[in-house]
Design a protein that fits this description.
The chain has 7 helices and 19 strands. The chain has about 400 residues and is of the alpha+beta class.
Length: about 400
Amino acid sequence: MADEEARQDVVTDVEQTGWLARLARSVGGVIFGFLLIIGACVLLFWNEGRAIQTARSLSEGAGLVHDVAADQVDPANDGKLIHVSGPLSVAGPVLDAEFSVRSSGLRLVRRAEMFQWTEEQETETRKKLGGGEEKTTTYKYTRAWADKPVDSSKFRERAGHANPQMTWRNRNLLAPQPTIGAFSVPDNLLASFGSERPLAASDDQAAALQRKLDKPVRVVDGAIYIAREPEQPVVGDGRITYTEVPLQDVSVVARQSGNGLAPYVTKAGGTVDLIAAGRVPATDMFKSAQDDNRLWTWLIRAGGCLLMLFGFGLILGPLGVLGDVIPFVGDIIRAGTGLVSLLCTAVVAPVVIAIAWLWYRPLVAVGILAVGGAVAFAAIWLARQRKERKTAAV
């Protein structure tokens, strides 16, 4: 019976595609490739502007910030960029009324999961003599806990794999009226602040919830299970776990606005509103923010270069399909087009970044243009050397 059920949860499709159809599809991919390259250029250009504006705003803020005491608000500092440190306090506990779970901390985070069907897809492609292609796709269906609804209507095999509607969702709850001494702290600064720690539910909470829902509820290892048998869940069962962020010392750099804190708008056009756990000096907070800005800049640069590389690959894709009439020839051509795509990305991406720096910061742009020019010269020189060696061999 188990073997029969396992076979029913695996579906295999085999698709045959002719050489002309593959060629037409690859030609259509050329248009998408150009769009990807344009998008990558826009992303790289925007990223440099964002990075420069953020760096200038942080440098400007570091030269303006004032250290103030948390115990009282000085009206003379209204509108100025201030640095304040102290213990966080709130007006009361944070409560998830739906499950009668509360925390005396700053934030209460609910993770709601449902036991449901999931679909895994694996594809294996095999090229055939004459340029055709055979694609074998295997769909595997398993049951697992997931904190987002899985739309079973989009499954390849919907029969026997239907998921019910997900009743409960994740929530991030903040305690009322958070303050640092005499200063109120805006919710946006605290929405993702702090390290979470587990918060176990109690049997009393499970009993109250069972009466409320009129469904079997149990607590296992601190998690709330809305299930008849948590050890052997069925599709539609629910699991609720909680974490909390405790009250703690905190440091904030922001604009003083009355007795509150708000983002400070710099002359560079950016905003400054920083938060850190503990009593952290303003200089360290600005240094950390500059480090984060540099990290994000390089991550976005890498993402833009990958998009560009993929775009050039799509543009050159028809060449590989043409060579697939004899499969190993197509693989050789793809290796070559992959190298060309890499070289094109290595040339175009630095040029786009240089143009952005020329627009936002002209002096540094000269150095980046020099790097791009050196890469282009090296690529041309290598191509000429290879051509000369082939000519000499003949």
